[in-house]
TrEMBL record:
One Pfam entry name: ABC_tran
Domain ABC transmembrane type-1 per the UniProt entry, residue ranges: 1-103
Start and end residues of each ABC transporter domain: 140-377
Keywords from the UniProt entry: ATP-binding, Cell membrane, Membrane, Nucleotide-binding, Transmembrane, Transmembrane helix, Transport
Superkingdom of source: Bacteria
Membrane topology of the entry: Multi-pass membrane protein
Protein name: ATP-binding protein of ABC transporter
Family annotation (InterPro entries): AAA+_ATPase (IPR003593), ABC1_TM_dom (IPR011527), ABC1_TM_sf (IPR036640), ABC_transporter-like_ATP-bd (IPR003439), ABC_transporter-like_CS (IPR017871), P-loop_NTPase (IPR027417), Type_1_exporter (IPR039421)
GO MF assignments: ABC-type oligopeptide transporter activity; ATP binding; ATP hydrolysis activity
Gene Ontology cellular-component annotations: plasma membrane
Record flagged with keyword Transmembrane helix: yes
Organism for this UniProt entry: Vibrio maritimus
Subcellular location: Cell membrane
Length: 387
């Protein structure tokens, strides 16, 4: 199945021979298992069928002998034979049921692994409406956050501290693998962060459920995921029971600079985007996921590298629209591109899981060599290729 999804890559990289060898090996494995099963069935099925007939011969032979010895009457032998025939069919069916039961149990065990997965106790509790109201518009603080994926591994994030007060626009700049997505997933409690590391107001985020936290934080992930539905439906998902008008959808499409593209589609906003959004370009997918997140504003909107597939001009327009809409709310924009971060109130430069420098664009240009070099490099790129 994964080979089918990767068909474009297989063709473009000419990986056909390798895929064929892999598929052949899998088919051989399947053939071996199927043959083993067939051999067992070919042996036992006739044995079972013949056992039925052998039983009749035995009853008639042994019964005939006992009849001659006058130990049994003809009526008793006939009754016994009838009962045994009546019983043999349900008994054979029982054998088949045992096979079906065993196969079913294998499937059920796999499902149960997911269904019985333990939900942490804290996630089963809900904060009272009053407490939730008191958490609205509070500062997100990261205090000395250290995170490692596996207990014995080196930390991916090391002693990170910063605050995101309400209304502040914060940028995170870092090279590939610097730990930006890991930081994002700690902030939205996607990962099991250590306690006393991330706070909303004065509450540790590990002290209440993730469901409650996600009323305040929304994340637009690095790989946008779209459902096989229309553009409008993809925007409306996640708005809960609130009724959303088409004008609302149009509004967020305009903010995310997707309205122009949608206008060019034959079915406009009713265009079906296909499985995982195959009908859209990378940049269109990113902008659709931004529109979806903008429909229901939250206290902190995190954008993890979501503007990487749009040009600089569109990026600027999206950020301007976004900041206007989320004027009193906080935004955390993660990017490799300095251009996307120039307008931020504060930029955190991350390197190897540590905070290298903090400050606004003009301060960092003076104080942080890495920031200045990245900026200069990207300025040259922009001049060479303005789109
Ligand atoms: N689930 C995981 N298990 C183990 N290690 C991981 C996992 N996810 C990421 N890492 C490691 O953590 C480091 C940081 O990864 P992360 O995804 O946070 O980087 P990033 O800064 O977001 O990079 P990019 O700019 O490419 O998105 C990498 O070295 C990566 O190998
Ligand atoms: Mg990342």
């Amino acid at each position: 199945m994964s080979y089918l999804s990767a068909i474009d890559l297989i063709k473009s990289q000419q990986m056909g021979a390798w895929v064929q060898a892999e598929t052949d090996a899998l088919n051989q494995k399947l053939l071996k298992c199927q043959m083993k099963l067939t051999r067992i069935q070919v042996f036992y099925m006739p044995v079972l069928d013949y056992a039925n007939n052998v039983m009749k011969i035995l009853i008639l032979g042994l019964g005939g002998y006992m009849l001659m010895q006058q130990e049994l009457t003809l009526g008793e032998i006939t009754a016994f034979l009838t009962y045994s025939v009546l019983l043999s069919i349900p008994l054979m069916a029982l054998g088949r049921i045992a096979t079906i039961y065993q196969r079913g149990m294998v499937g059920i065990t796999s499902c149960q692994t997911i269904l019985n997965a333990e939900v942490p106790e804290i996630d089963t509790k809900t904060l009272s409406e009053e407490t939730l109201d008191s958490l609205k518009g509070q500062t997100f603080s990261v205090r000395n956050l250290t995170y490692r994926y596996l207990q014995d591994d080196a930390p991916i994030l090391n002693g990170i501290s910063f605050d995101i007060p309400p209304g502040k626009k914060v940028g995170v700049l870092g090279s590939i693998g610097a730990g930006k997505t890991t930081l994002v997933n700690c902030l939205n409690h996607h990962l099991d962060v250590p306690s006393n590391s991330v706070f909303l107001g004065d509450r540790d985020i590990t002290s209440f459920s993730r469901n409650d936290l996600r009323r305040f934080v929304k994340t637009i992930t690095q790989d946008p995921y779209l459902f096989s539905a229309t553009i409008t439906e993809n925007v409306k998902f996640g708005s809960g029971s609130r009724t959303i008008s088409d004008d609302d959808v149009q509004g967020v499409l305009e903010l995310s600079q997707l309205a122009g593209d949608v206008e060019r589609f034959e079915q406009k906003a009713q265009t079906v985007v296909g499985e995982k959004g195959v009908m859209l370009s990378g940049g269109q997918k990113q902008r659709l996921s931004i529109a979806r997140a903008l429909l229901e504003p939250c206290d902190l909107l995190i954008m993890d590298n979501v503007l990487s597939a749009v040009d600089y001009e569109t990026e600027r327009k999206i950020l301007e629209g976004l900041f206007a809409r989320l004027e009193h709310r906080s935004v955390l924009v993660v990017s490799h591109r300095v251009n996307a971060l120039e307008y931020m109130d504060e930029i955190i430069v991350l390197s190897d899981g540590k905070v290298l420098a903090k400050g606004d664009h003009s301060t960092l240009l003076k104080t942080c060599d890495y920031y200045r070099e990245t900026w200069l490099l990207q300025q040259t790129e922009t001049e060479a290729n303005p789109c």
